[in-house]
Structure formats: structure tokens, C-alpha cells
């Protein structure tokens, strides 16, 4: 799966909240109360998983991924108290980020270099920096436009050929390039049909890589963006700080 498929789904039978969405048709948009109830249930499970495995639950935050939903759902999420929202396509996101500027918008999809400036105009955080060239372009535009931004390096921990992201060794090799640039952490996506154990192994490897890269670069890489609706608890158990959730918050899309 690529970040462009980023909606929070891993499998219809698994979710971090113990919810089984299956293929239930969408009959109406989720209300703020429904989103809040799902959010609170999700947070309880994720905090418990983090704490049980020795990680600080207060560092874990939910990113509501509104891909495929109209702007009304982004507004409902904000009304429910979700302040961080995510999208995976620049063109789809622009009307939402303009309509709901109060949210902190995160870009979680694969970013083409020719859309870098538009992405920086719409998003405060970009999770999917998957090459040195893209890092240089984003930081150059942000500097020239005097636009504050925060970036995460996407790492292809599983080595899947169809998945974007830096190889772990290439991510480590970027340590000298991180001085003076706004990279705040790493992101990864587990294999779509991974078991809980395999997902945890993927997320553990990202955390260990983050620690190595932080030591090599001398930069505090505080954020670990990992886990979606189907494997969020596995991510929380391995120290995720940002969990990208769509279905478990908003229900299944049409």
C-alpha cells in the first residue's frame, strides 16, 4: 500500500478500538458526537497499549485522516475536538484546509516534487519525505517563502517494492543532511495484511532506526508517525506518537 491509499484501513476485521466495520454502507456523515465517542474509545485502547509496553501515553496523539470525506466531516471532526487532521492528496485537501483553517493539517500521502509548494501552503506538517531531493526542495521553498513547516522522513521498513519511502540504510545516510532542517521524526506504513506481531516488528524497527538516526545526526527526532485504524494498537505498543486514523473515527466510506 502506498501513502496515496492512506485512509486508515488495514483490514475490515481489525481495528484498534475493537470495532468491526466490515463493508457497512455509508448512509450519513458522522456527527461530532459520533466522532468524539469513537475517538475517546480509540484513545483509551491506545493509551493502555502504550503504557503496558513502557511508553508514555501522553505523547501519543490521534491524526484524523479525512481523505474521501467532504469538508463537512473535517468541520465535524474539529467540532468534536480533533485539532489535527490529515489528507493524502494535495488537490483534494486544498478546499478542506481553506475551509477549516483552525485545524493543524498534516499531509500523509505521496508527494510529487512539482506539488511541493502547494503542499507547503496547505499543510503545516508533511509526513512523507521519501528522498533527499524532496527534502531539499521542501526546505528550500520553506526558507525562500519564510514559511514554517515540519517534516518527517518516510521509511520503507518492510522493503516492499510498490511502497514509497527511504530504505533504512538510506535514511541513516541522511544524518548529515538533517542539520538545520525542520525534520522532526520518521513515518512508516506496515504491510497491509500484516499480523499484529509483524506490524509490531515493523514499528519497533522504525523506533530503533529513529534512535540511531537521532544519535548520528544530533537532532531530537521526537515524532514517530505509525499505525492506522487496523494496526493502531500495535503502533501504540511500540511507541507511536502520531497515529493516522480514518475508518475508526469516521466509519467506512462509500
Supply the key terms.
254 residues, alpha/beta, TIM Barrel, 9 helices, 8 strands, 14% strand, disordered N terminus
Secondary-structure blueprint of this entry?
Blueprint: H1 32-52, E1 61-65, H2 71-79, E2 84-87, H3 90-99, E3 104-107, H4 116-122, E4 125-129, H5 132-144, E5 150-154, H6 168-173, E6 183-187, H7 196-217, E7 223-225, H8 232-237, E8 242-245, H9 247-250
Parallel strand pairs: 1-2, 1-8, 2-3, 3-4, 4-5, 5-6, 6-7
Describe the structure.
With 254 residues, this protein is an alpha/beta fold. The chain has one domain: Alanine racemase (TIM Barrel). It has nine helices and eight strands. The protein has an eight-stranded parallel beta sheet. It is globular. The N terminus is likely disordered.
Helix content: 25-40%
CATH C-level name:
Alpha Beta
The CATH superfamily is Alanine racemase
Element pattern in H and E? HEHEHEHEHEHEHEHEH
Give the low-confidence spans. 1-5, 7-25
Strand order of the largest sheet: 7-6-5-4-3-2-1-8
CATH architecture type:
Alpha-Beta Barrel
Overall pLDDT score: 90
- DSSP helix count? 9
Radius of gyration, in Å, reads 17 Å
Enter the CATH topology name.
TIM Barrel
When the domains are counted, the total is 1
Distance between the termini: 19 Å
Structural class: alpha/beta
- Give the beta-strand count: 8
- The percent range for strand residues is 5-15%
Q: Could you give a short account of the major beta sheet? A: 8 strands, parallel
What coarse outline follows from CA principal-axis ratios? globular
